[in-house]
Here is the input.
Amino acid sequence: MSHVRRRSLKSPQTNLDPLSASVFNRSMKQAFVSTEPHSGMMASRHIGRALVSVSTGDIATKSGVDAIVNPTTRSLRLDGRVSASICAQADRTQLADACRHLAPLDVGEARITPSFGLNSANIIHCHGPRYIEPDAADVLGNTYWNILELAEREGLTSIAWPALSAGALGFPVAASARVAMEITKEFSPDFHNLKRIEFVVVDRAAADSVAEEILRPVEIPEIRTAINIRVHYAPEEVEAMRQGFNGDMTTKWFFYYEEPWLCVYRGTRSHGRCHFLLKLPSSASPAPIEEAWVCAALGGSDYFLDKREVERLIPILLDDRFELLDMASDIEHFGETSLWVKRGRIGLHSSIHEFDQMLSVEEARALGSRLLELTDRLSKSSPIRG
Here is the structure.
């Protein structure tokens, strides 16, 4: 049985001033709308490490994905619009028998069966809520979450889903897509297998509604402070940051990547607050953060640190959460000990005791001097044996 994750879905708010809203909406659409007419894709954008896109067509005949999503009922009857199309392509008898063994399916749940003859290998069956039901948006959010959780657990790399609960269940396509994107963004740090999520809708009008939600820009608050992060990050470090990071009650820092922004939250995306927005570089060579904001005015009750302190602390936070200091191309090995240089510091690793330590230049110099002293003393006190 799928775990129904109870969560409160916040309604997205637009905190952009008119100028920022215009600039960000225009830049996002220029950056992410597909320009390849043969691709069938109307828009695409990376959320975490997964590419989220939208296309039109019949989801039952979708190829190139590990699973398609079939909205169904508690009894998993194969009589909905998507189910009817699936049954026209798959072995209906085998599929109906598999579904019979999975029933009943509670609202919000998701379960998986083989596809029995479709282009995709699997079908994820889900039971979405009606638009008029209490807390319908939250329940729909649970449904999308459980699909992603199931896909990850099954090791799927790609899925295609419709706008759930739209049509007969009453949800407007745009509302369903907005819930889906909010859930996808919150789930994104847990994308370890999923690399592609595709909305498949029936017509261009629905695709345009979904595309607007995919390309919805990050919320840039009116009260904000620009900062300058001078550290140059290598492409592999940027890729690590795009994964995002789920904090816990100890760290409380959560990182979510919404192309091209790394959004740094204190607390989860749905219940916390975004503190920093970092526009990650897309260069093939080491490059600094292209743009960085503190989502508040510095020096007030929320941020007693000054600008220089924040600019110093953010790289430390990134290095720590994504273990960037361990990413080095030139590592020297001395027996069971490894040394490397990173951002003006020297890394020290012992495979015997399994520890890493980053040393300042002064600390490394002191360590080196001490090692030379000990080596000299040992060589004098005992003969060297070949």
Q: What stands out?
A: The longest helix spans residues 361-381. Residues 244 and 256 are 5 Å apart (CA to CA).
